[in-house]
Amino acid sequence: MLGPVLLAAARSESIRRIVSAAPVTRPVVDRFVAGERLDQSLHSVRSLTDRGLDVTLDHLGEDITDRSEALRNRDAYLDLCTALASDGVGPRVEMSVKLSAFGQALPGGHDLAYRNVLPVVESAAAAGTTVTLDMEDHTTVESTLAILAELRKRFPQTGAVVQSYLFRTEDDCRALTGEGSRVRLVKGAYKEPAEVAYQDKREVDRAYVRCLKILMAGQGYPMIGSHDPRMVAIGQELARRHGRKQDEYEFQMLYGIREAEQARLKAEGHRMRVYVPYGTDWYGYFMRRLAERPANLAFFLRALAGR
Ligand code: FDA
Hints:
The protein has helices spanning 2-9, 13-21, 25-32, 38-50, 67-87, 109-126, 141-154, 169-175, 201-217, 229-241, 259-267, 283-292, 294-304; strands at residues 54-59, 93-97, 131-133, 159-163, 182-186, 221-225, 250-254, 272-278. The mean pLDDT is 92. It folds into 2 domains: 1-33 and 283-307, no CATH class; 34-281, Alpha-Beta Barrel (TIM Barrel), CATH 3.20.20. By secondary structure, the protein is of the alpha/beta class. The protein has 13 helices and 8 strands. Helix 8 (169-175) links the parallel strand 4 (159-163) and strand 5. Helix 1 runs antiparallel to helix 12 and helix 9 packs parallel to helix 10. The protein has an 8-stranded parallel beta barrel, surrounded by 8 helices. The structure holds dihydroflavine-adenine dinucleotide (FDA). Keywords: FAD, Flavoprotein, Nucleotide-binding, Oxidoreductase, Proline metabolism. Pathway: Amino-acid degradation; L-proline degradation into L-glutamate; L-glutamate from L-proline: step 1/2. Its cofactor is FAD. InterPro entries: FAD-linked_oxidoreductase-like, PRODH_bac_arc, Proline_DH_dom, Proline_oxidase. This is proline dehydrogenase.
């Protein structure tokens, strides 16, 4: 029941100030966020790639309020592209971007987000890697998929994210099953109204399986973004049933979550990609992780209580 409250708090400026200033917050944040600076995040990336894991890097930032912030976020990603190019890591380290960090919610935001993300996608391609567009709340889906379609005309390797809790997603999956289409399927992390999204977890899970079946049967490259052992097992079974080789799909999990399971999947020969967030604007991301799982919240509350 606390989940919706935490998701509402994730968008509250006053609660952001209180949580961010609490001295105990930092060590808990460190469990989910790979540092505030690029060099710290690259250190985490190297430790993951040394263990055979692939990475998608997220420079944290979302829900910005002016155009200069959008430009700062774009520049942070361009710096990241430069660093990845000099490391020569290739597609094993890609990037995830939230279009709200590029101005999508500002006036004229659709065009602005496209203009800001385009140089990042170009630089990623020049660095031998690619970008996946994260999916945010349901009001952004049309715009994000339209930007994706535009980007894919020149950069077909650009990835999409779809959320099984939205009623529309099965149709979106069908539209995204073309050859080479990289699609990360997740359950969805935002507070959505009953008009557009399943509210019951079991319904969300059932929809996840239906979407996974569509993606696995298609010509694209499914990316199974879940920590749920049932979804992982079903993903493995569907891949086997459709005769997919281990480089024709991948698993994805978040930094700091189920690390033993990440290692196990890798050891079994699967491609396993870890989503690594970094940067100073960690609040919204952090609150969504607390909302997702009572154990994460309990960990935070124990730290607050000094135990
Ligand atoms: P869920 O939270 O439903 O839990 C199901 C079961 O999984 C649990 O009962 C438990 O067994 C296991 N489990 C889950 N978390 C665990 C933990 N910490 N430790 C041990 N067991 C655990 N969302 C979004 O809206 N837009 C996006 O772009 C993205 N991007 C994204 C990328 C990647 C790589 C991932 C993994 C996730 C996202 N998400 C996302 C978040 C996603 O929508 C969702 O909120 C979380 O992944 C939680 O859902 P799960 O499927 O992981 O399991």
